[in-house]
Backbone:
């Protein structure tokens, strides 16, 4: 289930959402109280009609067309599909209406010059034919029973703005801010109909009561819900674009600490991969694939403020009311320029009119690694090292491997099986009809599962928003969020070049973690200055086998203690709006993002091994200040005329980002030994004090935009959007870009011809096409600029002079990168309880801005930018949800699955491919992007198995009879000679797998019985390969996983794992091949939760509004064939990703 | 309604204000970046442009390729070494002659050279319009011209078939540039240098404290002499180099050149611009270079590259080498050659010997021989006290020309051109005797065989040997064991990047058509 209404919502907002309905209601109810209008002149109008075996609808259409008689009716209350014969000649309209409608249970009234159709009250059928219809309007005045009541939701909160009508009449009122209503009804037989968008309509018989409490249940069919679109909201039933959403209740109480985790698996069309499991670190979000070689991060818009990507981490997930992802161009075009990678709209929680609500929610949790690698123990390690040495003809190193026992389990030293986390959130909200407020305060603290002393995250956040409506015509408000966070990080993840993870994987298990043997501890290398020691003074073990950056992780931790980075983020906006005439709102919003961030680190003197030495301490602090702002003015006009619903939006905006600067200083040789004592106040010689700084080049965008939404009876829907943006990143030739889109929708279930059935309750077919843009290129790229840093050293002073020269040839013709997207989809409600959305899209990006490789002989230091690349994505998405309540049991299932295919369709002239990622010691990189293939596909050799015997090597010959792999030995890989030239070289490579997941899927199951509720959420991705590069290749002595125990050791022992040798002349390990690539497909039971909510009256007894306790398990089971820590990684090259933790939390929600 | 009109008016005002500043709003002045059209307006900016031309003298690519390490890796005195078979692949494939258009040092050397040419062309085009001291302007122009000749000389001897670009190329013509015969390049650069000499704007000597590293007239003569030597104009080469060399073994008072008495002093970092130095590629330890941009540092990367891997000093007497990456170690064959030469200790760091004596330990790298390039191995004493990655900030300069080299080149020109054989012998003897530094003369005969050995011993590891072997025609015989093929490996292949979508053709030697 993707689209939910927040319940309840402020009444004034509903005014906008369901304006058309409420307008009708207000008009009709005022009419009901007003002096009746006699409109005999219309009813006396003579009409001619001759239609046989026709429907009432056709009759209405006929009269409308031929005689200009306008009808107003609701399809829900009158049955217009009834078959009738209509043959009248020069008869007054009244006769026709009485004959055709009254006799078929349909009442009518005249309102101004229109005929309003409604259901004839029970018992009145044909009984009152001689009373003129207009007379019935008097019944309101003659009402004999005054009823009062209150409309509340399932949580007992009042619902303002609900419509209460007397059934079969136009007599009705709206509930006030407290949900209360007062209505005069005709008799005890009257029935009250209570309705509001987002809830199931309810009917209550008046009977002998005069006071009612009506509880409305959430509407589950979904189509009446509203979704946030750019600059407004829309009923889901009339959306024509592709929008996925998540609302607060979908992720409440689930220990999600970043917004991408919320979206992962809960929205179709999004590929979300975790950057790493380090607390506070984010994820990579891709909306419908990768559309450019440049920045593919979607545009994040929080309460209307564009927040630069990467800066979204400041947001506390508990403050989020809903998230909507605008996936197709038709939806995203309203954000024109920067919408090419999709737009994600975040709406934060707001206060509601009514009593003050105080809510606390919090949890405590404990985390452990979900998986550990099986690494060789000391005996196995020594055995395999001996074998590898012997195979290279070298003397063996370990005479008695068995004597070494199991040795050191490095992983056990870096993993924390009980990493703590806690989160607390307190919010206060409330308000009146004139103003509302919401304030929250949150605190989060999370310890990492790897090397916890240097892996922690803390966040404090504060949010406040207010709305004011001092007069009927004016409202204004503000919305401000502040966050401070402090991250302590490993400093080195997903790298085979050291860091605790890589070291734990690659260090030999023979070296002790701590050297407690005094003889050994007083010999080399422990006599070297600055060897790192533990609190007891024992040195941490230094490997004599594995060197370079692979160091004792415990010692490494000591060298980084205290280092942290910090950030203050303030994101807010203020707006004012006037509503001078009904339906028109003119609004001005000013928003800003201010950020202050930096880090502080101290590097002490240390000796971790002979090549990882710090011989001069240093202390670094840096600060960045960022100030972005934007200003938007919009005018929105909504008008309903009969069944014509129209909304027009006009807007202009000015945006400035990248307006920051940073300064930093590094001081070398401080007279201290640790972080806590380090200070910039120590005076060090100027040459040991390196200061640096930089400034952002402000990026300006100025925009004009317009949107038209029109629907006819929510049956035929059209939306058009156009946005014209100007960017400071382009020259005069192409400063402005225009981005149009159009989308259409049709709801055949509203057609008269649609047969009444119990299968399809609602069906909407929609499609759209639009173009969005991207100006993601460095500033000034269109200008010919002079660059510095072409320095040279003159003289004997050991110093240098700054030189300047032109950078790159300018390209004044640079223009917008464009992404055109066609989207076709259906939304359906079937069997009443199933909501189905199916979509297909095709996205084509043209003119991708790229640096073109110009010839080196031009002599430029950098390459100029040009619009040279094209890329295509096609995909299909399916979401299906089922919600059912049977007795006390409610059950729901929400599933989605998406598939996408990416193809690079054009590169710069002469550019055969773009190099992707490389891996140390793998020859020629491991991925590349080439026309006809997905971006960054794995590229390597075809591995035909392992040569078992020399005879097989000898018989592997080319067409000329030459041995193709003359240097191979039994146990080596057999490589395919793809180009048939009789030798194996880099021309024998091909594409061997996708690095980008092509499938995403998610499933949420919930069930509730009385106070108990449970939830199971699973998600996964697939279709991609992961390069399992955990083993450091250039260090022959690096440890292996136990997979190496299955290596080839003689004929018939292995066909997949080659022999081990220190002399790998066959490049078994240096060629990229299927040996390294593993399926990245996985399905993960991400969340299981069990909760209990105290009965309302019990809660009240202890002075609470509500109380819920819950227990959650996160990341419980992962189904995958991948052998690394975690298949959920961004980039698909695993060189020691920080794995995600398995977490158990216990939490509490209390409402006061 | 009246009230709402008031608000409406206020809003209209805000909206209009927003629109009003629109035009200028999208024109953002580049911050801290000069536009080319607004640069080169005074003497300082012209000088900054000149510094950028000099910058390429010490070009080091992001992939750790320098002119010296590449030429060393290709020659018989060294193997590529490093940490593994694919550690700096571009060097490995030159070492085993599997280089091609996409792998090897070609891209870096071609790119670096043309960057120098481009910067010189830009400055030469801009200088006439710069309001500044006329004498200095003329000097800057001549320095740019001479440096451009220097870059072209390297390009033509590395690649043979190169485009000759002496003005800025219009953007529309970028892909239409053609190659010229090597003779056209030689003609251009010989004429350029001759006119620089006749202009007389470049000083004979500079104040080394402030201007050491700038071109002097002696350096221009040395360059022209060397170009003549490669162009087989032996008489012209000898006479040009004689201007630099003066009387063998004595100070050339015009330029202040004289052989240093002690060979080992040449490699001391506090001895920059000594009397033997004619032109140096300069380095500094103070630029704070780091791994984010190897090509940006002003430090000398050779110091860390050639140092012994995993070096540990075990006694106080041990040399203070920095633990390096064990690139381009000397071969056993070279060690045998130089073992009994007095230049042995200054040239070769014999780590196995130190290890055997218990003085120091190290970790053998790839293709280890135990013999490291002592001339450039970094020393702890030279480690930067400034910022940046210490590995990338060694201040050691590299000689482009030193007097011993020009002595031997003149001797070669005399022998090859049938010139004054006595002078040739005197020049060679001066170099050889200096090696001993024992006050005695150690005479050498003026034959090519002797000269070849002397050049090999004197200039080992300085990036000359490969060019010498190719120039002498000895490369196929000497380098055949590495995979060198006659008629192919005398030049480097033109890098793939410049063959794509251009009119540049690959040399015939590498399967091309030119």
Residues:
């Amino acid at each position: 289930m993707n689209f939910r209404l927040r319940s309840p919502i402020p009444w004034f907002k509903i005014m906008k959402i369901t304006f058309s309905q409420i307008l009708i209601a207000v008009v009709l109810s005022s009419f009901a109280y007003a002096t009746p209008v006699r409109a005999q002149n219309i009813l006396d109008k003579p009409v001619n009609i001759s239609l046989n075996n026709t429907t009432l609808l056709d009759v209405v259409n006929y009269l409308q067309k031929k005689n200009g008689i306008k009808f107003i009716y609701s399809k829900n209350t009158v049955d217009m599909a009834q078959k009738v014969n209509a043959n009248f000649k020069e008869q007054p309209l009244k006769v026709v209406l009485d004959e055709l409608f009254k006799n078929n249970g349909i009442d009518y009234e005249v309102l101004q010059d229109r005929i309003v159709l409604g259901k004839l009250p029970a018992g009145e059928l044909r009984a009152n034919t001689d009373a003129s219809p207009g007379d019935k309007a008097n019944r309101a005045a003659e009402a004999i029973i005054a009823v009062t009541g209150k409309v509340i939701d399932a949580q007992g909160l009042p619902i303002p703005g609900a419509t209460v009508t007397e059934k079969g009449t136009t007599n009705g009122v709206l509930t006030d801010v407290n949900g209360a209503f007062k209505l005069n009804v005709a008799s005890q037989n009257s029935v009250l109909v209570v309705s509001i968008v987002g809830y199931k309509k309810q009917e209550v018989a008046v009977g002998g009561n005069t006071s009612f409490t009506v509880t409305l249940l959430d509407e589950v069919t979904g189509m009446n819900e509203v979704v946030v679109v750019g600059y407004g909201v829309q009923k889901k039933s009339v959306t024509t674009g592709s929008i996925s959403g998540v609302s607060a209740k979908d992720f409440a109480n689930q220990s999600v600490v970043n917004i991408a985790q919320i979206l992962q698996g809960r929205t179709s069309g999004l590929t979300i991969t975790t950057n790493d499991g380090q607390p506070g670190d984010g994820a990579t979000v891709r909306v419908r694939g990768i559309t450019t070689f440049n920045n593919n991060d979607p545009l994040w818009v929080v309460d209307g403020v564009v927040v630069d990507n990467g800066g979204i981490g400041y947001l506390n997930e508990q403050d989020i009311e809903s998230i909507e992802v605008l996936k197709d161009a038709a939806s995203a075009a309203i954000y024109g320029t920067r919408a090419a990678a999709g737009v994600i709209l975040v709406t934060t929680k707001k206060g509601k009119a009514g009593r003050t609500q105080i809510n606390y929610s919090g949890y405590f949790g404990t985390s452990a690694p979900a998986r550990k690698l099986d690494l060789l123990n000391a005996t196995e390690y020594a055995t395999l090292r001996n074998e590898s040495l012997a195979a290279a003809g070298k003397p063996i190193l370990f005479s008695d491997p068995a004597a070494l026992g199991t040795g050191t389990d490095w992983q056990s030293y870096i993993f924390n099986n009980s990493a703590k986390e806690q989160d607390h959130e307190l919010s206060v909200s409330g308000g009146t009809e004139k103003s509302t407020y919401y304030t929250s305060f949150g605190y989060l603290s999370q310890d990492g599962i790897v090397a916890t002393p240097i892996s922690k995250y803390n966040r404090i956040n504060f949010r406040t928003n207010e709305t004011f409506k001092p007069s009927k015509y004016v409202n204004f408000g503000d919305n401000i969020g502040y966050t401070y966070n402090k991250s302590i990080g490993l400093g080195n993840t997903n790298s085979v070049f050291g860091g605790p993870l890589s070291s734990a994987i690659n260090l030999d298990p023979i070296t002790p973690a701590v050297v407690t043997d005094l003889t050994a501890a007083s010999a080399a290398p422990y006599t070297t200055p600055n060897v790192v020691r533990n609190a007891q003074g024992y040195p941490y073990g230094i490997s004599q086998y594995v060197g370079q950056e692979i160091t004792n992780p415990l010692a490494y931790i000591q060298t980084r203690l205290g280092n942290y980075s910090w950030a203050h983020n303030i994101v807010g906006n203020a707006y004012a709006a006037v509503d001078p005439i009904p339906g028109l709102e003119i609004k001005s919003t000013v928003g800003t993002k201010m950020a202050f961030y930096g880090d502080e680190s101290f590097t002490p003197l240390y000796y971790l091994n002979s090549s990882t030495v710090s011989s001069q301490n240093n202390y670094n602090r840096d600060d960045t200040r960022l100030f972005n702002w934007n200003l938007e003015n919009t005018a929105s006009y909504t008008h309903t005329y009969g069944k014509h619903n129209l909304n027009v939006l006009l807007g202009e905006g000015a945006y400035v980002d990248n307006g920051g600067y940073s300064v930093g200083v590094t001081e070398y040789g401080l007279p201290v030994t640790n972080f806590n004592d380090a200070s910039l106040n120590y005076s060090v010689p100027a040459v040991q004090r390196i200061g640096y700084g930089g400034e952002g080049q402000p990026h300006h965008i100025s925009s004009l935009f317009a949107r038209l939404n029109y629907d006819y009876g929510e049956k035929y829907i059209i939306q058009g959007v156009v946005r014209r943006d100007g960017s400071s990143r382009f020259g005069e030739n192409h400063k402005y870009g225009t981005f149009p889109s159009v989308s259409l929708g049709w709801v055949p279930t509203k057609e008269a011809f649609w047969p009444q059935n119990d299968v399809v309750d609602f069906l909407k077919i929609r499609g759209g096409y639009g173009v969005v843009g991207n100006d993601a290129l460095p500033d000034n790229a269109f200008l010919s600029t002079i660059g510095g840093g072409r320095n040279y050293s003159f003289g004997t002073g050991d110093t240098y002079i700054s030189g300047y020269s032109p950078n790159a040839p300018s390209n004044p013709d640079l223009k917008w990168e464009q992404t055109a997207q066609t989207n076709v989809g259906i939304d359906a409600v079937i069997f009443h309880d199933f909501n189905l959305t199916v979509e297909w899209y095709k996205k084509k990006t043209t003119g991708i801005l790229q640096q073109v490789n110009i010839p080196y002989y031009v002599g430029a230091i950098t390459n100029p930018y040009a619009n040279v690349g094209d890329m295509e994505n096609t995909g299909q998405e399916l979401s299906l949800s089922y919600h059912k309540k049977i007795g006390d049991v409610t059950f729901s299932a929400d599933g989605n699955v998406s598939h996408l295919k990416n193809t690079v369709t054009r590169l710069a002239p002469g550019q055969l491919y773009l190099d992707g990622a490389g891996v140390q010691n793998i020859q020629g990189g491991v991925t590349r992007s080439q026309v006809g293939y997905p971006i960054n596909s794995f590229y390597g050799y075809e591995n035909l198995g392992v040569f078992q015997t020399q005879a097989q090597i000898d018989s592997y010959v080319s067409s000329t009879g030459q041995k193709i792999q003359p240097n191979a030995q039994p146990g080596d890989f057999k490589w395919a000679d793809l180009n048939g030239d009789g030798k194996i070289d880099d021309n024998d490579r091909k594409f061997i797998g996708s690095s980008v997941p092509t499938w995403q899927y998610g499933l949420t199951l919930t069930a509730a019985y009385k106070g108990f509720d449970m939830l199971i959420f699973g998600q996964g991705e697939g279709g991609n390969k992961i390069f399992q590069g955990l083993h450091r290749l250039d260090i022959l002595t690096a440890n292996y996983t136990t997979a190496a125990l299955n290596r080839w050791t003689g004929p018939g022992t292995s066909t997949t794992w080659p022999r081990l040798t220190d002399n790998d002349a066959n490049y078994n390990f240096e060629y990229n091949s299927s040996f390294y690539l593993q399926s990245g497909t996985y399905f993960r039971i991400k969340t299981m939760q069990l909760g209990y909510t105290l009965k309302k009256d019990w809660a009240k007894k202890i002075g609470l509004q509500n109380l819920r306790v819950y227990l959650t398990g996160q990341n419980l089971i992962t189904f995958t064939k991948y052998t690394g820590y975690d298949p959920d990684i961004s980039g698909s090259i695993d060189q020691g990703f920080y794995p995600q933790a398995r977490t158990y939390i216990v939490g509490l929600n209390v409402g006061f | 309604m009246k009230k709402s009109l008031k608000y409406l008016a206020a809003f209209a005002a805000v909206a209009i204000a927003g629109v009003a500043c629109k035009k200028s709003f999208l024109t953002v002045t580049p911050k801290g970046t000069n536009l080319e059209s607004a640069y080169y307006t005074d003497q300082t900016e012209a000088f900054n442009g000149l510094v950028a031309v000099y910058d390429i003298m010490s070009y080091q690519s992001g992939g750790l390729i320098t002119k010296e390490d590449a030429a060393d890796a290709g020659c018989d005195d060294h193997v590529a070494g490093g940490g593994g078979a694919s550690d700096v692949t571009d060097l490995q494939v030159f070492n085993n002659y599997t280089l091609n258009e996409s792998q090897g040092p070609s891209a870096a050397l071609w790119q670096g050279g043309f960057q120098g040419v481009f910067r010189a062309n830009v400055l030469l085009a801009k200088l006439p319009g710069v309001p500044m001291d006329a004498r200095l302007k003329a000097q800057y122009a001549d320095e740019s011209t001479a440096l451009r000749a220097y870059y072209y000389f390297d390009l033509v001897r590395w690649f043979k078939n190169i485009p000759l670009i002496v003005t800025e190329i219009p953007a529309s013509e970028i892909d239409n540039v053609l190659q010229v015969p090597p003779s056209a390049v030689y003609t251009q650069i010989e004429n350029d240098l001759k006119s620089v000499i006749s202009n007389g704007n470049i000083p004979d000597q500079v104040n080394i404290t402030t201007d050491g590293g700038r071109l002097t007239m002696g350096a221009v003569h040395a360059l022209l002499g060397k170009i003549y030597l490669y162009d087989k104009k032996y008489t012209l080469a000898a006479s040009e180099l004689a201007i630099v060399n003066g009387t063998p073994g004595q100070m050339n008072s015009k330029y202040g050149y004289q052989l240093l008495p002690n060979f080992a002093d040449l490699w001391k970092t506090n001895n920059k611009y000594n009397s033997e130095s004619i032109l140096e590629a300069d380095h500094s330890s103070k630029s704070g270079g780091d791994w984010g941009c190897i090509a940006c540092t002003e430090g000398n990367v050779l110091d860390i590259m050639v140092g012994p891997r995993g070096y540990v000093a075990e006694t106080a007497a041990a040399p203070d080498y920095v633990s390096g990456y064990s690139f381009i170690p000397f071969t056993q064959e070279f060690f045998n050659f130089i073992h009994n030469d007095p230049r042995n200790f200054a040239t070769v760091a014999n780590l196995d010997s130190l290890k055997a004596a218990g003085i120091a330990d190290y970790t053998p790298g790839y293709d280890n021989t135990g013999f490291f390039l002592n001339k450039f191995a970094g020393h702890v004493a030279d480690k930067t006290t400034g910022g940046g990655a210490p590995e990338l900030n060694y201040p050691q300069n590299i000689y482009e020309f030193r007097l011993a080299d020009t002595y031997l080149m003149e001797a070669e020109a005399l022998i090859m051109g049938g010139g004054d054989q006595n002078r040739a012998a005197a020049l060679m003897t001066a170099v050889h005797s200096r090696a001993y530094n024992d006050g005695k003369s150690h005479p050498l005969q003026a034959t090519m065989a002797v000269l070849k050995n002397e050049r090999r011993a004197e200039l080992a590891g300085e990036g000359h040997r490969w060019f010498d072997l190719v120039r002498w025609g000895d490369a196929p015989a000497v380098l055949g064991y590495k995979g060198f093929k006659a008629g192919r490996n005398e030049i480097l292949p033109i890098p793939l990047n410049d063959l794509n979508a251009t009119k540049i053709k690959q040399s015939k030697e590498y399967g091309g058509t030119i």
